[in-house]
Design brief:
With 386 residues, the protein is an alpha/beta fold. It is built from 14 helices and nine strands. The strands form two sheets. The protein has a six-stranded parallel β-sheet with strand order 1-9-6-4-2-3, with helices on both faces. A three-stranded mixed β-sheet has the order 5-8-7. α1 packs across α3 and α10 crosses α14. It starts with 11 loop residues before the first strand and ends with a helix.
Amino acid sequence: MQSFEFNTVPSLTVEWGGAARLGERLGAWFAERNLLLVTDAGLTASGVLDAAAASLRANGFAVTLFDAVVADPPESVLLDCVARARAAHVDIVLGFGGGSSMDVAKLAAVLIRSGQSLASLYGIGNVEGGRLPLVQVPTTAGTGSEVTNITILTTGETTKMGVVANQLYADRVLLDGALTCGLPPLHTAATGIDAMVHAIEAYTSRHKKNPISDLLACEALRLLSTHLVAACHNGSDRTGREAMLLGATLAGQAFANAPVAAVHALAYPLGGRCHIPHGLANALMLGPVLDFNLKAAAPLYARLAVPVGADLTGADSEMDRARCFLGRMLGLMDASGAPRRLRDAGVAEDMLPTLAADAMRQTRLLANNPAPLNEADALVLYRTAY
């Protein structure tokens, strides 16, 4: 067997309605009581936080609320969060929300007590020392950020950079499917497809793919493909919501160890240039990239046909089964109701060459793709998606 390494969070709790008991759980898990709660203003206004915040205060936690997180958070948001936390002398951090809130919570937990500059953290393995205790509670079923060691920040007008370090793995994760019941259909579709992208790219990654990440990716795809369409059409169904949330988390554990590739490389410029949410950007680029990789990844796609529930009737060859997988994914995306064209997401056609050039900067991601991809290929893929 080829040598490999697998890392993930040390503790994961799945409990429907568990956020209402968050203070009791954290009180048993940690001695610290001066808590920074990182979230966004929408969640604060919606009341989704109320039960968790009340539970925390009832169990002796002083709560400093930072709810200024925005999608594709810029560096300034993180630095404001750290400044507020330091002023309040917090000693434990809770990320509560979507991927952006959890990403900010990760780096805040590091920087609150670190002497390192933010600029020195970018890249792989550049975080020195430890961090404050960190808990993550996702409210969307998509990013998998609760179980990854990656944070992505917007570093300029249109560019993004990442911090990858094992210190970013949370100490504890709570999956409460009830928190995702308020997600609207289009958001459910985009985040669900985003999670499927994570699983597919982990399974087909050229680097660090391993038996554990493969198992997680396959089970994630089984859960997500089974429940995606139903969750989009009936967002209050407990079975579907719990399955989608667990599937997204398993996909996150997979891609934290077997890195993502071209779908993400092409999605990032859509976020930076066109301000398209990350999950939707991945959903928009998945079909064209799957087709581009079909020949190179056929053996792997053929194996994924079973967990996604593809109809393999008459699929006698490996390539036949790979095409069945592709067809099943396209069908799921159509049935989910997610936008399928860049033009439908407000992307101007004259932006495509710029997007292709930007995508080439994502060398870390492109190196993981099953098939080599250059700028001309990227432009063709954007045009196909347009």
